[in-house]
Amino acid sequence: MFDWLDSLSGRFVFEVLGLHEESALGTALHFFVYDTVKIFILLLGIIYLVTLLRSYFPVEKARLYISGKHKLTGHVLAAIFGVITPFCSCSAIPLFLGFLQARIPLGVTFSYLISAPLGDAVVIALLLSLFGWKIALLYVLVGLLIAIVSGLIIGALKLEKEVLIEVKEIGDISYTSEELLFQHRAREAWEYTVDIFKKIYLYVLAGVGIGAFIHGYIPADFITHYAGGNAWYAPIVAVVMGIPMYSNAAGILPLVEVLSEKGMLLGTALSFMMAVVALSLPEALILKRVLSLKLISIFFGIVGFGILLVGYLFNAIL
Amino acid sequence: MKIEILGTGCSKCKALEEAVKQAVAQSGRFVQIEKVDDIQKIMDYAVMSTPALVIDGKVISAGKLLSVAEIAALIKAQ
User: Fold this and answer.
1) For chain B, which domains are there?
2) The pTM is what?
3) Chain B residues whose beta carbon lies within 8 Å of the beta carbon of residue A90
């Protein structure tokens, strides 16, 4: 798909700049130009498409579908809707309470709340552009599984009293969709895409830059030997590192791509990405206003454990 | 007329409040503007995505950052 870009950036580096094809600088620079342009094109395209599609699935609609469903069906639906509805961690509270108001069980609500950030457009776009559609699909499926199982566990623990705010149940939930013109949706999706892109492009540049350096200058056995790519504790380090990160993760993934070519394991990379989006510190602080510390700790503990399992599983089978 | 901005302090909520102030200033009408931070009050409007815009007790939009022009049109329509 990107052969044209490969030869174009090759021509630029080797013919226009006159660098030698075998030299470390030439290889590094070729990689940098190619990877940056490729990632930027895919990021813009994928985030735009995902945002546009999501504008057709507002969360109010999802709530209507989920409420009143049988327990397991509820969990599965909640996890799936988490991926396809638009989500911003800044409205996690009204969303959370809105679900409870509609008498959706706490566990099902958590299935949604866990799956929603995992379906982050930036992460999906980066996984698609760096690791291909198979890994991206695997990521989404595993994310759904974690959301469903974690929600089931939280539901079984009967933690309803750990919600610190009184929820008034509403009898009739209804939803009337507002008809938006396609142009309107397209414009909003584009504005959103540009907004996100501005937040992450510098990190991507930095990540690809360091990646290009490693690509050109550092031999593969150095990474496996010294960076501990396949050490048993690597997924744990990845999950812990992922918790305080967000935008800067966009820069780490291109780096992980190079590292995985040179011996770091993919399960570790997936664990890291999931921890970045699903266990976010800012979101925990927001939820602290309506949930007890105990419930938030249980939530983080269960999801963190699930992510770790995924890391080890994929390190073992991929 | 009374315009309420519902939001728990995200950057979009502040941006919407600014846009409302500008739109009201442009309209030259007397409009009471209130920023609602209280979660309980926000829930009473049954809003699930913030920021939301409420005009005279009626939810006009949720989860969207409206432009100054769009808000001005809404004020005019009232």
Assistant:
1) 2-77 (3.40.30.10)
2) 0.80
3) 8-13, 50
